[in-house]
Design a protein that fits this description.
Length: about 650
């Protein structure tokens, strides 16, 4: 009996291993097929002079005509509707004397008009700059000025923010035109009072105005000569380390991404993708909108993310795939359980930035509670020239941002490389020959990606009108003298099975007591007791390096500081224990869910800088968190206490 039980267990284990092996081979083949398809599509586009992303949409219109293209708040646009609307707008653009290669600034919240405006720009070879609609004042002015636009096109409800800076914008660009968009989603079109704050000389754009323009297709001549290396839009960095930079997004890179993600995630005409992620960012713009064009899929546009409304929108729209960024899956798990949790058609959740958690992982919790079989996590950046993928349908490799099998790994080994980093300078370490040193298995290192500007998928275009920022992202003489790589600024590790895991952002890892501390690892431990924490390193008087500090928002609920102190001392080595806790009203993050650390890190724990937020420290004698006072700060400055 014992022998039979052992044999049965061995067979079960072997079966699981066999299943995992088959799954991994299938994933690898799927990714390889997507890469091959993208190369064929780009080669054909080059030969036929159809490199423009516009033709991807137009091909879908021929196949899909009156089927659903976009759905938003119960309103549906067919592919033909979208084609007609974008053509009318393109003719209006031509009437404004926009020339090929000109830029416009697009300042608008999530709605189908976003994609329609982009298509109109693509039709006439004009480059839209996607401006974060949460920006106001100097940040908004900076992003518009960077793009050097001929026209600013903005949602009617956002007009006051534009009005506040219009005079300043015209000082920089006297010929700048302003157009105010109004449709059924604008407050002023919902029977309410017109939004105030107009700009002198602005043009009002609504259905009545556009109906006077032709819906005829813009001739191919307007797009002739577009190369894969031509820009199709400007997408701004998140601004976690300063003012946002406008990344040049190329037709070739967007088409590659659309083809690869379509194949990897098996998107088709029957796919209905729900995204409440901001359309001004590449995750939604490229990997939902462009993927929708490539696959002929329906894209359901959520006006903005709401954890309480998310599943209702998904059910009502019959979505079968959902998109996430950052902490979205965690926020959905934080909602009260419901008998409706699994009553939907979703088979796939795909996105990036889902922070790992202590076991069970967020992925596993999400899969179990909501019944979503596949989590398709990826790693990429708006300006980057490479990507990692983990199409994950089982527990093997859950939590990884990428996975490489023998097929893909064989030609990626020198293209996407992890480099050992000097923790003090945050520069790649170099050997006696002056070349960089690869990080070992499971050793965190900065991911760098080979630059090949003759390749549509490995070119690095850099930032629009920002040569110095572009140059900072290029690393030379990495594996061979004179080669060039793109610096992601992110630390990852790769295990022996080919799984890639996000470790931290350079600058988020801090050094304390001669040890390197990854903020994500500390945040994971804190996450066992508090809903959310932003971990960073702070300078402390009379001490080398940076001590750990965790900002916890009031929304995380009451914090039992005694329990927290005992917990971190049990779970973390002494050098990684957060010595300071700062209770804040709220945690700031970018529109794509990335926590902002720079201001917190710069303020540190100096009582004069923290703005009245309660700060506690892990007292060196009491070994529990107690209030940190001005007197304690002075004692540290005097060097009378050693942490």
């Amino acid at each position: 009996m014992a022998l039979h039980a052992a044999a049965t267990a061995l067979a079960a284990a072997s079966g699981a291993a066999y299943f995992d092996a088959l799954w991994r081979v299938g994933e690898d083949l799927r990714l390889a097929r997507g890469i091959a398809r993208s190369r064929i599509a780009l080669a054909l586009g080059d030969r036929r002079d159809t490199n423009s992303l516009y033709y991807v949409f137009e091909d879908a219109v021929r196949r899909r005509d009156n089927n659903d293209c976009y759905v938003c708040e119960g309103v549906t646009w067919s592919w033909n509707d979208v084609a007609d609307a974008s053509n009318r707008l393109a003719h209006w653009f031509l009437a404004q004397n926009l020339q090929r290669g000109d830029t416009i600034a697009l300042y608008m919240p999530n709605k189908p008009a976003y994609a329609i405006i982009w298509l109109a720009c693509l039709a006439i070879d004009v480059v839209p700059a996607f401006i974060n609609y949460n920006l106001t004042d100097k940040g908004l002015e900076h992003c518009i000025n960077v793009a050097k636009p001929k026209l600013v096109l903005y949602e009617s409800d956002l007009a006051p923010a534009i009005a506040d800076i219009a005079a300043s914008l015209r000082t920089t660009n006297p010929a700048l035109k302003f157009a105010r968009w109004e449709d059924r989603f604008s407050t002023s079109s919902a029977g309410k009072e017109k939004t105030a704050g107009g700009v002198d000389g602005e043009v009002r754009l609504d259905e009545g105005v556009l109906s006077r323009y032709s819906a005829e297709r813009i001739p191919n001549e307007r797009r002739s000569g577009i190369k894969w290396s031509s820009p199709c839009c400007l997408i701004y960095t998140s601004g976690t380390t300063g003012l946002p930079k406008a990344a040049l997004t190329l037709h070739g890179r967007a088409r590659t991404a659309a083809t690869v993600w379509t194949t990897l995630n098996s998107f088709s005409r029957s796919s209905r993708i729900y995204t409440p992620m901001p359309l001004y960012h590449s995750t939604a713009a490229i990997l939902a909108v462009c993927v929708g064009w490539n696959a002929g899929a329906t894209v359901v546009i959520g006006r903005k993310f709401s954890a309480t409304r998310f599943w209702r929108d998904v059910r009502e729209s019959r979505a079968n795939a959902i998109q996430y960024v950052g902490e979205v899956l965690r926020y959905l798990l934080a909602t009260p359980p419901s008998e409706m949790d699994k009553k939907h058609e979703v088979r796939l959740a795909y996105g990036n930035g889902c922070r790992p958690d202590v076991r069970p992982l967020v992925w596993e919790k999400f899969r179990e509670r909501f019944g979503v079989r596949v989590i398709s996590e990826f790693f990429a950046s708006s300006e980057g020239n490479g990507s990692l993928f983990n199409y994950n349908g089982n527990s093997f490799g859950a939590g990884a941002v990428g996975k490489e099998g023998l097929i893909v790994g064989s030609f990626q080994s020198k293209k996407q490389v992890l480099l050992r980093v000097d923790p003090l300078t945050e520069e790649p370490a170099r050997d006696e020959r002056g070349l960089c040193i690869r990080a070992g298995t499971n050793e965190p290192g900065e991911l760098v990606i080979l630059i090949d500007n003759s390749s549509p998928y490995q070119a690095f275009a850099g930032y629009y009108n920002n040569t110095s920022a572009t140059e900072k992202k290029i690393l030379r003489s990495v594996l061979a003298p004179g080669d060039t790589y793109f610096r992601t600024g992110d630390l990852l590790r790769r295990d022996a099975d080919g799984h890639w895991y996000f470790a931290d952002r350079l600058g988020d890892t801090f050094r304390w007591k001669s040890e390197n501390v990854a903020t994500t690892s500390v945040a994971e431990v804190l996450g066992e007791l508090v809903k959310e924490a932003n971990v960073y390193g702070v300078t402390v008087p009379s001490h080398e390096g940076r001590a750990g500090c965790a900002a916890i928002p009031q929304s995380a609920g009451p914090v039992d500081l005694a329990q927290l102190a005992a917990h971190v001392q049990l779970k973390l080595p002494k050098y990684a224990q957060p010595l300071f806790i700062r209770l804040v009203k709220a945690l700031e993050s970018t529109g794509t869910g990335k926590q902002l650390k720079v201001v917190l890190r710069n303020e540190g724990v100096d009582p004069a800088l923290v703005g009245g937020d309660p700060v506690y420290w892990l007292h060196p004698d009491k070994r529990t968190y107690v209030p940190f006072t001005r007197n304690d700060w002075d004692v540290l400055r005097a060097g009378k206490v050693k942490l």
